[in-house]
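pasting for the record
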Amino acid sequence: MNHQLPPGLDQVSVFQSIFKAYPDALLLVDEGGMIVMANPSATELLGYQRDELVGLAVEALVPDAIRPRHANYRKAYGRNPHARPMGTQMDLVAKRKDGTEVMVEIALSPLKDLGFPYVVTAIRGIGAYPRVKQALQRARYSDYVARLGRLAVDMRDPQELLQEVPKMATEALHVESSAVYLLDPSRLQFFVVSGVGLVAEEHLGARLPSTPDRMPGYVLANNAPLLVKDGRTEQRFGVLRSYLDVGLISGLAVPLSDRGRTVGVLVVRSTQADRFGEDETRFLESVGNLLASTLQRSQTEEALRHSQRLESVGQLTGGIAHDFNNLLTVIQGNLQVLEELPSITADPHAQQLLGAALRAGKRSAELTSKLLAFSRRQVLQPGRVDVVAQLYSLADMLRRTLDQRIQIKLAVDGACPPCLADPGQLEAALLNLAINARDAMPDGGTLTIACKVCNALPADLQSDVSDSDGASTPFVEISLTDTGTGMSEEIKKRAFEPFFTTKEAGRGTGLGLSTVYGFARQSRGAVAIDSTIGVGTTLTLYIPAPPQDDEPEVPQAPSAHPVPMGLRVALVEDDPEVRAVVERFLEALGCRVTPFASAEEALIGFDAGEDVQLLLTDIALGPGMRGMELAKIAQARWPALAIILMSGFSSELLDANRDAPEHWELLQKPYGRDELANAIANVTSASPH
């Protein structure tokens, strides 16, 4: 068939009409790279007026970074022009007049074979393609997550990141509102810690119930992301009216998880219905995970710093206790000697004064014992303790001795196994906790004492117990819960520090909780505080349960034996005042004493033929040989020699308890004449012959 154009139309007019109507941008470019024609689609895509495009070098449409390379490509193409599609296997971008860039596909069609020195450049904007838009969106989300990751590494204060996350979430998602909600330790309330576009009811610092009838609480209950397509028709929970009033009708929320436990919620809201999908959910989950990890890292670092501070204080207090014990040995020893002088025994007033001084000395010794308990340098005698029986006994005693307005409740699991602890120290720790609970309830209240078995320590306490201590072995969980005034976060952080107290002057030493802390740690366990202002406090001890095949018994006090009269004793003590007091004790017990100021002096005396039956030596003997080494040398020479090691530094006794033979005796300073007599009687009756 012979088709002809309608009258009045020629081919040029048709081609011009096609050029103008073509949906893709068309540019006619000469051999020098100058644009000679442009269709309306080109002006729309590239942001220029037609007159601005005509006469413009095509390189102006190329991003600055690749412009030099593009000029070389164009020259090479000019030497061998051919039809060529571009952008199907690579990402191409065109630079618009305003400097923005748009993703494109380009096709080149030379007209040289038709006798025209031009190339038709067809440019198709593909940024609006669904697959491209999705890829761009995902790339942008990934970029925001990477930026947030860099901030998390650089920011040492988690509060800075908490403030930054809502800003970044609203910017990345192009939404109007975002908020971070963190759970308080009781898990009963959320705190609004940061946000953008908040309403008055959820201002910064606001407290919200964690119940599932609100969006954050619903996420907490289900521990999964939540999509709200339109809050006006939401049936699962109540949507705050204030958000709907300002047009925030759709929402997306993800949990903030710390080691599998939800600690908060991140929420974004939009004025556009059904605004969020899978890509947005994945993005917000990534942001939430990064934020939760940063908060976890910060808490772990703070816990480590706090533990290191406590360890440093423990070392200091242990050293102070050592010096105190030497001083108290001198003070109490001389007071005991004075007490038995005839002139004193005949004077009632002098006896009264001496009695007061001795009682003060005893309280001082108890104070140093508490310091040693905190520093984990006391000598414990662990055994199987029937926790259930001990708690019933404790409750009976507390009902008789505490304020009658305080009700004592027991929530004891009768099947709770025994724990492995020093029974006396465990009882002292529980009494300390009970007294603190009493002081927190000046107007009365309820003290609940509970115990149960737990298979492993809570995750946040496992760093307190080394693997070798068995962080994953069974523990007996003993808790005391009061309905008192509660503690602030700042007070909780310092609660275990020695000498820290919130009580008025004269009402406490500040050593109660630090003693409990030291006892728990030395018992290979842990202690935790959970407290809310105005609600109350729960203090929980975690004490290891003994292995089922292990049946150690609580050590019994050995039966008393008399001190052998005329016992020949070598006394080695570098402190002259302590040496004088102990020498008087020994002489009063009927012993024959040869004192030495150092281990080296004692060895010289032994070599000179000094005949001794008992070596009583301090462990720390100044800069020279230590008492443990002296005892080993002496024992090797005279196997029948009885040995007593003494020290005011319990860590030395702990080491000696581990290294010394069972028939040696260990004596903790300060001690009195009776304690010394018992030690001598024990070691002489147990010494090998």
